[in-house]
Amino acid sequence: MTQNSTVLSGIQLDQFIDRLEVEHQEHGDDHVLGLLRAQPLKAASLESIDRLHVLWVNAGDADASRAVLADDGQALIEATPEEARNELKVNLLIYQLRLCNYLKDEQGLLQALDALQQLSNEALAFDIEQYRRYRIFDDLQHTTLDVALKAIEVRHTLALINPGRHALRAWDDADQHRRRARVLAAHERDEEAREAALAAITALRTAGEGQDVDGNDWLWLGDALIEIVPLRLAMFEQPVVQLIAELSLPQRREWEVRLARLAARSLKAQGDLPGALKICEVATLELDSSGGDNFVEFHLPWLLENGQIDDAGQRAFMEIYGVRSQMWPGTAYWVHDRLLDAEDQSPWWPLCVMRACDDQKVLERFVSGLPWRDESTPSMGPLLDALHAARDDLEQLDNVFAQALEEARRRAPNHPWINRLLAVRERQAGRIDANTELTMLREAVSAGNMQDHRSAYSLFSAHASVFGIVDALRQPLPTMAGGMNYYSFACNIDDLVEVEVEKLSSEEADQAWSLLREVQKLAYERGQARMEQCFATGRGHRYDACAHMYSMLCNNLAINYRCYNDQRMYEQALELHARGIAASPFAEHYHGTLQNRIELGDDAGIAEAAEQLWHFAADYGYSRHDPEEYLFEVSRALYRLDREREILIWLERVLKWQEEQGVADKDLEISQLFARIKVATYLSYNLPEAASSLWLRYAPYVNEGDIASLLGCSGDVLKGLGRKEEAIAYYQRSILRSDPDNAIDQSNNEIFSQSIAELQAVEKPAGKAWWQIWK
Questions:
Q1: How far apart are the C-alpha atoms of 101 and 106, rounded to whole Å?
Q2: Residue 131: enclosing H or E segment and its boundaries?
Q3: pTM of full prediction above 0.70
Q4: Could you say which of 13, 70, 72, 585 is the most buried, measured as most Cβ atoms within 10 Å of its Cβ?
């Protein structure tokens, strides 16, 4: 019986719930239940209904929670305008699904799902898409078979009534059958699961015209179903092969790797583990430039299952070593599993833990993948005990490393990777000097035949610490295992050189930068060759297959050819940008293409490249895109091509860009103002009205700046417009403002003087043409 008859509602109820949510944490269920039952409560908004029914069930009264949804929910429906009631009903049913799922109320779930499906027959004048995507439908697929199948059916119904998904009907049908197949397989209804899987395939295969189905959809479907229908691999492969036929070679190779992964899983599902592992030569090729898409989640367990313990340990180690905090968490699970096995004495497992102690982020990622351990669990040994302790206290990183080091040394006292990891760690901690680190690294890298970019960088950095950065840059480029290794090494040493040159004289610094560009050029070229060989053959090192990595490498090498050491290899740079765009386009390639066309003086190429850059940046974004930087060159090219009207298009783009950036005319930089005056010059001959308008807009800022180059350029505009006296005045002002010690100014003065002479020349009287003399 309530002690207070005052009904709490509205803002008072919200404040009451705020207080009880805090007190629930502090005082527990009984205390909160007493307060909830002390007086009547009425939730009069959807948010309040949500919060109140959750508070009731968390405090232990499921019936009261149901009553809130039923009674307060119905009252809210009646108080809501007719046109908004259906969306409110959908939300209340979603709340009911969550509550019944929490309470494991199968009958309640089925009733709520039926009600939701019936509601879908009515006119729903709101965006249903967000509700179809709610996580509750995924959660319900892991409940009883009847509930799971019903939830899939309802989700599909919600998709069908969304007119915005018209082009996705085939995909939605495939998705429904895909989900049914996986649920049926999980409940060991194998024959029905296969039928559902084949129905999903048919839905995509028979998609009508106008349906949005691509290669990714087929891979998505294969990824979900290949273990259910392993004999139907060709049904996933064939449409993908047809869809990728026109792609560039690097892109096709990436698709082939994905198909190889399906093929490997197909063989494994058929019981052919050796065959699956053989395909892993291709399936494990890396498809992500950060190293995180490499099939390790299948490959590592398969190696273990096949008894290739040492290979599996090395695979796990290289995953942690290379990907660090982005590693697959399952790697930690398998490392833990092998460390528990007293018969497994491979040194790779403790080495995995040593590498996981690289820093706190890496260790945190690693321990997140460990199996849960109850406090009552007996000791698992010093190393695993330390690892589990680090789950709650990452400050124990040093202790975990020490235990892993001890175990690794016990198993393989002179393992090269022990000394490789130890050398860097001890140097960073100040326990050894640079000479000692360099000696340890040289021995370890040689003994272990280490060809990764991290080891190469560590050796380079140690050498620079002992002998200086210039000497380090003069050392032969180390042989590395894959294209990604060469790329990463070249990028990483850039930062080190930038720091080290601050200690050098100007002459030595210039030498260091020049040597750096030579080293980077060679590294990029070797990486390019390795990756192109992989694309040509379909085989290569794990780090040779990523099309986007190849594209980034092409871009960096093209910049090297264009910008550094006076190479001026513009044609070669253009070829690299073209390859990069074909492999994996991004804006820097289009920007680089434009810059090379400018260097070559290729007017038609400049106009085309600028147009491509503009549209690509507009469609896909480019944080460094600034059309102000190339307005002058593009306008000049169009002028030379007698395409002045296209200059107006670029002018409009740049002026709109200026407005969007919030830059006032008075705040334009000199180079930007100069470009606008040059545009006016190019327009003055054939489009004088546009030129005059542009000149009038910026003339005040030219006059205010009183800078020689701007004044002279203004003279060109006025000359083109036929305003002779004004043109002469600006030329004369430019000459007066010029710097006598500036070679460019003095060269311009000669040109301006000639223009003045031309404008001041007295026109000759008209005379007879030669062919009129005999008249």
A1: 8
A2: helix 129-132
A3: yes
A4: 72
